[in-house]
Design goal:
mainly alpha; 5 helices
């Protein structure tokens, strides 16, 4: 069981109601828009993606290789390697396409 606090809890920016729908586990529209806006700003996207619920919902939308790459980047970012951790162009484009941007 995962903790409600810690590296993958979404931090202080996490909304009270959550980021995913309870019934289906799909991302909420506000969450999609927030992630798309963060993708435009560069490394801000990794800050938004440091939430286990979001990673799980994205895992259903993207391929296995992209999901593994995204989880690796989020793990590095959450552990403090913020300067050298950057979303590459392919992964960024994949996320924009599945999120509707």
């Amino acid at each position: 069981m995962l903790s409600h606090v810690g590296l993958y809890s979404g931090g202080s920016n996490a909304p009270i109601g959550g980021n995913v729908k309870r019934a289906s586990g799909a991302l909420l529209v506000k969450t999609r828009k927030r992630i798309l806006a963060a993708l435009e700003q560069g490394n801000e996207a990794l800050k938004e993606l440091c939430d286990f619920d979001i990673l799980l919902a994205l895992d259903m939308l993207i391929g296995r290789e992209e999901s593994e790459q995204l989880c690796l980047l989020v793990r590095k970012y959450a552990r403090g390697q913020k300067k050298g951790t950057v979303l590459d162009g392919h992964l960024k484009l994949t996320l924009q396409s599945v999120l509707g941007g």
